[in-house]
Amino acid sequence: MLDSLERTERPHVQSAGSDNPRPMWIAQFWRPETGIFLGVWLVLLIGGRERLFRDPGTFWHTVVGERILTTGEFLDHDPFSYTFGGQPWTPYEWLGECAMALIHRVDGFDSLLLAATVGIAALFTWAAHRLLRAGLHWSLTVLVIVLLFAASTSHLHVRPHLFTIAFLGITFARLVDFEAGRINLRRLAWLIPLFIVWTNIHGGMLGGLGTMGLAWLGWCGWRVLGLHTPLKSRRSILDLAVLIVVCGLTAFVNPYGVELPRTWYAIMHMPHLPEIIQEHAPLNPTRPDGVMVLGFGLVYLVALLGVMPGKWRVTWLLPLVWLALACMRIRHAPLFAITATLALADLLPYTRWAAWLARPGSDLFRFPAAKSSPRWNWRPALLPFALVGLAFGLQAAQAPVPVLGHGWARLDPEIWPVELLPELRRQAEAKPGAPIFNEYEFGGFLIYYTPELRVYLDDRCEVYGDQWLHEYVVAENDPGPYVEACQKRYGRFDLALTHTGSGYDSYFNRSAEWSVLERTPTATLYRRADRYAEETR
């Protein structure tokens, strides 16, 4: 949607790849990008009303942002757990968390869902616009966007990581345009303010910085080999190197100084993290998300093999690096998908496949015509803007309208202990500040819904440390000694929240010291039996 507002390169009414001319008034307000945005947005709103809220970080990210906004102070210690409470902690995603809190103030999870789906749909539509501008027919463009969506969907969650997907896409597109000669180094320098914002939202800015560094190295190598490169002189090589260094120094432009990049470093060097958090695990080719990533990777490799001799560019190879990283950690899958889509938009006109698609009698591909005088084309964005504005208005008024209005977003009861909330709140109000033993995934949920309770742990791995979390995971096979040692070290707790059927659940269920307060197929809430006996005398 965003790029529909860009200057159009071809003034004719019929869009690239259209089968039939459309009436002028329709063409002014509807382009393929319009339909792609609305399609992606509605699919995300309907299919993602639960799926986009499957990451426990969504809960505590919002709480952290709200605390910063309410107090006007940056957190520098852990305020949530009783195991590491008061210990130094750097909320390295503070700006993204503040953005989430501001959005959450409008209408809770409904507004977060709306913002996330609009952002994702806008990003995917921008990628589609570049494919259409390259000459690809709208039907094939839709297929590529489906591949982009499929390879990304398992890691699209309401959290600051979404900004990294978008910002890496912007960074990569600028590199592609620089290599193609569409922009100069001065316009590439606009990445500096982007990186300043990115630094304070998510540590993924290191991925953007690494992508820039690889592009620079590739262009230097291309120059040595006598191949096409945008670095025409030693001065341009030095200027780009300085730009990359400046972008790297933005890592220190934050309220926490060196502590913020130090936190990134600590997380990156946690050897047990892939065993603890699924999204940090290697790609599994037997899982649907792994199959979709590898499928898109195969499509991209086939496209690369079709590049005509002498037309190769460095940036077209960079998505392969992200594909390798996605195989190492599946959380990088959306980053591979967005870079591959943007690279496809640039390389397709230089492939044998484009020549075959543009054969006589076929309109699946049209080689871009010479650029004409640019003009603004804002009308195709009117309908998307109107619908998004309507959804925002309905949520601000808390009008219970399906899909667009209040009450649409919800938490999956098969993942989150929503049915236990009344009892959890009752316990939290009865004894504020009480510690509760909880399993890893439920920490953020408790931080959000029962802030009076102090959690045992959550998914802020930088707080608890790699080894500590590893011991927690291993102990599930025989939790008795671990739980007893935990109480000796951190003090006794009288509440426990477990996954029903887990190793920890079996321990509390067998123990005579604990009684079940409430059990659901998803989770079980326990209370110490001796405390219960004292209260009921």
What would you say this structure looks like, in words?
By secondary structure, this protein is mainly alpha-helical. It has 24 helices and 7 strands. Strands 4-3-5-7-6 form a 5-stranded mixed sheet, with helices on both faces. A two-stranded antiparallel ribbon has the order 1-2. Strand 3, helix 19 and strand 4 form a beta-alpha-beta unit. Helix 4 packs across helix 6 and helix 4 runs antiparallel to helix 17. The longest helix has about 40 residues. The protein is globular.
Question: What are its keywords?
Answer:
single chain; 537 residues; five-stranded mixed β-sheet; two-stranded antiparallel sheet; 24 helices; 57% helix; disordered N terminus
In short:
Helix content is 57%, strand content 5%. The strands form 2 sheets. The protein has a 5-stranded mixed sheet, sandwiched between helices. Strands 1-2 form a two-stranded antiparallel ribbon. The chain is built from 24 helices and 7 strands.
